[in-house]
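ARCHIVE CARD
Drawer: 12
Card no.: 0347
Subject: one protein chain, sequence and derived structure
Cross-reference: see card 0346
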Amino acid sequence: MVDRLANSEANTRRISIVENCFGAAGQPLTIPGRVLIGEGVLTKLCRKKPKARQFFLFNDILVYGNIVIQKKKYNKQHIIPLENVTIDSIQDEGDLRNGWLIKTPTKSFAVYAATATEKSEWMNHINKCVSDLLSKSGKTPSNEHAAVWVPDSEATVCMRCQKVKFTPVNRRHHCRKCGFVVCGPCSEKRFLLPSQSSKPVRICDFCYQLLSTGEMTACQSTTSDSYSHSPKSSLNNVSDDDDDEDSSD
């Protein structure tokens, strides 16, 4: 089906419409062989709170952006190569239901669909696209991914020292290796994580020690489960301005 649509006029028109919705600030999306598989609104768990984002699934990339005018205008375009994507289902909890993790070496995050059926369709289509890409390229699935950041609202105290309470003065930071919400004194170190940045990035003391001593296996086990093991607490939207390259997220 994908091969049949690849060079069809209908597919070219659909991709052109998506390009126009992102405007001049968005990257061109029309290339030979690219097919728009589907689109829809998903709730992305951002640093401060869950936010609606428009997602577009192509046979080789996943694109999402902020909704300015539904079906007409989007901004802050993000493009994720599907070859690097792995996804994991998330158990329902409270108001957050029908979710899964989208994990890549550079950035990982949770999204939620409106219904269980919609979740199943998204996950099945993403997995099929990834499988087809890897089959064609002969590559193996990526086993490295960035940590999923624990939302600000889920930590009233530092998740490492368990002592410092967050206030407008004691601001929240995120460790780029494990995704935990940590205080300034617990995250003064920087370490080069090439898959995430060309410059050393903020990490917590715990991860710094593991990385510095070469205990990568132990450190990696903390990153993969940082989202599912985050504590639940009262809402508090104090954030750290330098904790995300996209200030809206």
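Annotation on reverse: Helices lie at 2-5, 9-22, 116-137, 205-212, 216-224. The CA atoms of residues 130 and 136 lie 10 Å apart.
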